[in-house]
Amino acid sequence: MSTEISGIGGGRQRDGAIEVKDLNVQYRSNGGLIKAVDAFSLDVAPGEFVCLLGPSGCGKSTILNVMAGFIPASSGSVRLDGELVTEAGQDRGVVFQRYVLFPWLNVLQNVEYGLKVRGVDKALRQQKAREYLHLVGLAGFEQKYPKELSGGMQQRVGIARVLVNGPKVMLMDEPFGALDSQTRYMMQELTLKVSQKDGTTIIFVTHDLDEALLLGDRICVITASPGRVKEVITNPIPGPRSTEIASLPEYVETRRRIYEMLRDEIQRSFAQEAEKLGVSKVGA
């Protein structure tokens, strides 16, 4: 797939291949050295939607933060289209669980902010901002302020603000975890729509098995800390997917298989926490 090369959404440079090789991340805590990620390797093709799935504390967010360039690798590497990732860049957009919007700017100003910083002409940046607000279902809300919006609406503004900058890769760190179930499903549908429309590579961190099976072309199951690749599973159900897939036999079987993997890792995670607290035995 090829598109016009531009730094602005709707005409982006098409690529977005990620190569993570033997990634290790360590940090100091209470005078000791903690290994968060251990020999983690993963290749992601341009336009692919990959979910990172694992128990709490397994290093999912740490891996995403290294991909984003927010924290350094202790060893190993992350490359985007062959270039070593060493710092944050506009070729990667990040959507967090918290709605990181500027409260003193209205919706339109929040979405166009990145383009303004890059010196894009006001008329063009506002046109692009309006296009992406329409895409996320917020046309007509341009003059509203974040405090006037629901959580789901704020998250949609955040997604539009990322997409308008034309990133090759969108990194999403449990972005819908704080939303109610109905709003969460609407946001999942929106994310699939965005992925299909622009062909953006998406790395999506989640601890929700059903969310991973709905969204991911592949699901990377991660072990309890330190995070390693336990298995990478190709979703047997081709896109576009909807919640109706839950009744398909291949969905049921794949869900069972992944659940068994997760259950083992969650139990290991519980045992690790118990050991830290000096508890000798943990109930199943």
CATH topology label of the largest domain: Rossmann fold
General form: globular
What is the name of the CATH architecture of the largest domain? 3-Layer(aba) Sandwich
Radius of gyration: 19 Å
Number of domains: 2
Q: Could you say which structural class the secondary elements and strand pairing correspond to?
A: alpha/beta
Biggest sheet character: 6 strands, mixed
Output the CATH homologous superfamily of the largest domain: P-loop containing nucleotide triphosphate hydrolases
Count of strand segments: 10
Termini separation comes to: 49 Å
User: Whole-number average pLDDT?
Assistant: 89
What is the number of helical segments per DSSP (H or I, 4+ residues)? 7
Helical percent range? 25-40%
Tell me the series of helices and strands, N- to C-terminal: EEEHEEEHHHEHEHEEH
Q: Report the sheet-strand fraction.
A: 15-25%
What is the CATH first-level class name of the largest domain?
Answer: Alpha Beta
Q: Any low-confidence stretches, pLDDT <50, length ≥5?
A: 1-6
Q: What topology, given as strand order, has the largest sheet? A: 6-7-8-3-9-10
GO molecular function: ATP binding
Pfam families: ABC_tran
Keywords: ATP-binding, Cell membrane, Membrane, Nucleotide-binding, Transport
Domain ABC transporter: 20-249
